[in-house]
Amino acid sequence: MRCTRHGPNRKGRDYVVGDVHGQYAQLMEALERVDFDVARDRLFCVGDLVDRGEASLACLALALEPWCFAVMGNHEQMAITALAEGGGMAWDLWQRNGGNWVFLDGVEEARSTMNAARPHLPLAREICAGQRRLGVVHADPPDDWGQIEQTPAEHLLWSRRRFRRDSGGSLDSTRVEGVDAVVVGHTIVEAPLWLGNVLHLDTGACAGGRLTLAAVDDILDAIP
């Protein structure tokens, strides 16, 4: 299954966080500000837990926590391929895109943690909040959420279609059918940005920006 579905959280609150990229301290500070309770609350991550930050291994290990639910990002995909091949073009690509943390933590430790985390990184997640549903993917959802299982992984992990301006200079605000809203990361924005019913939440924690954490109920209440 490409998409893992989650029922309502009847014990606590649900949150979604943008691309973490090894910024473990920033994430812990953000969770502390909302009094996140690991016994009751759930954290959903839009992917790219790793790369560009020195605490990438610690962030990757979050995928193994019972309260943390991440999706696969293109940086996890690059790391998986590079660690499996151990060199060559895949390794060079990963290193050019922030994989140098592997030398701090060790290749074998990184490979072991990634192998453990990989089964916990589906391409998509769906969160039920009462009568409303929120999708989570890394880059770009299909136009109809009902097609999530058939959508190519490349699209879900790499696409920036919504930022390709049309002839009028506008961003793509096509709404995703079959779900109330979708949260994505992948493309850095100055502030959380709605394009249709798709919320872009990567505010550049690894690039001098900040890490954005948002409550699921607040996201669903703010759908334009």
What are the main properties of this structure?
single chain; 224 residues; 6-stranded mixed beta sheet; 10 strands
Could you explain the architecture of this structure?
It is a single chain. By secondary structure, the protein is an alpha/beta fold. The chain has a single domain, classed as Purple Acid Phosphatase, chain A, domain 2. Helix content is 29%, strand content 18%. The protein is built from eight helices and ten strands. Strands 1-5-6-7-9-8 form a six-stranded mixed sheet. The chain is globular. It starts with a strand and ends with a helix. The mean pLDDT is 96.
Number of distinct helices: 8
In CATH, what is the homologous superfamily? Metallo-dependent phosphatases
Span of the ends, CA to CA: 30 Å
Major sheet details: 6 strands, mixed
Based on CA atoms alone, the radius of gyration comes out at 17 Å
Average pLDDT score: 96
Order of helices and strands: EEHEHEHHHHEEHEEEEH
- The order of strands across the largest sheet is 1-5-6-7-9-8
Low-pLDDT residue spans: none
